[in-house]
Structures are given as C-alpha cells and as structure tokens.
Amino acid sequence: RDIIMGMKHSILMWIRVASFGSRLVGLALLCLMYGWYGFDPKWIASGMDPDERFGILERHWAYFVGFGFPYVLLMENTSFFVGYGVFLASFPFCILLGSVCDYTDPYAQYMPKKSDTLTLKSNTLPVFKTAQNWTLLAIKYIDQKSFDARKKRSTSASGSSSSTSTSTGSSSRAGLSKVNKDKKTS
C-alpha cells in the first residue's frame, strides 16, 4: 500500500514538473514571438526572405526573448482584455523600437569570425527546424503526387496507354478528353 501511495505521489510530482516546464517553455516562445513582431516589419520592408528572418531569430534568440519579455510580462500579469489592450496600445512602440534597434550590437564581441562556422552553429537555437522539416516533407509529398499525375497524363497522351489494362486505358482516355476540352475552352 505504501508503494502504491509513493508511486502516486511520484507521478503527481512529475506531472507538476512537466506542467511547470511546459509553462516556462511556452512563456519563452511567447517572448520570442513578440520579439519577432517588433522586427518583422523592418525585415519585410528591407526585402528579406523568410529563411533569412528565421536564421536571424535562431542566431540571436536571446536578444529577441529579452525584447519580447516586457510585453509578455504585461500580458501575463493582467487580465486577458487589459493585457491585450496594453499590448495593442504599445505595439506601434514595439515596431518603432524594432526599426531603430540593432540586434547584432550586443553580440558583436562574442560573435565568431566568418570562418568559424562551428561556434556560430553552437549559438543557434533551432526553433523552426521541426516546422521547416515537416513543411518540406509535405511539399515533397504534394510535389510527388503532382509529378505522378503529370507523368500519367503525359504517358496517356503519347499513346502508350495501350499496354496498360483496359480500365486504366479508359480512365486515361477520359482524362485525355478532359484535357482536350480544357484546351478548347481556353
């Protein structure tokens, strides 16, 4: 009986630790997101593509967490409507600060030379790596399906559908007639 009670208390303790840890990670990511909000309009106006912006955020993550911390502190310590009201009122100030501040300045003395990529890689926090991998996997899957469909259409258009079964041949002929109808309408 004591063993079961001990296991119950141990499980409850781990649930509390996991709950606290997930809350802490959530607040850190929220700080990072609000730091992103301040600099993103400047980066878009300067013509940076999303991969460059993700790279900057991953390399200078500590600066952006610190930049977003006051906004998260205001929002977490007030009620929902008051917190978002204060954030919406201070958001233009956040954008102005983002357009004036230089995020590379605090890192200047600690950043390695251009040739030392190992140290530069160790300073990055790959926040977007999982999302990028899943997106690339989805695009690859979608592209493969569209490639297969184009290949099937081109095969049926070249007349090699006679070697396939009659059901496949009839469906490819139906697809070919649909393509011909689309060409006539356009």
Automatic annotation (TrEMBL):
GO terms for biological process: macroautophagy. GO terms for cellular component: endoplasmic reticulum; membrane. Residues 155-178 have a biased composition (Low complexity). The keyword Transmembrane applies. It is found in: Membrane. The keyword Transmembrane applies. This is Uncharacterized protein. Signal peptide: none annotated. It is a multi-pass membrane protein. The lineage of its organism: Eukaryota, Sar, Stramenopiles, Ochrophyta, Chrysophyceae.
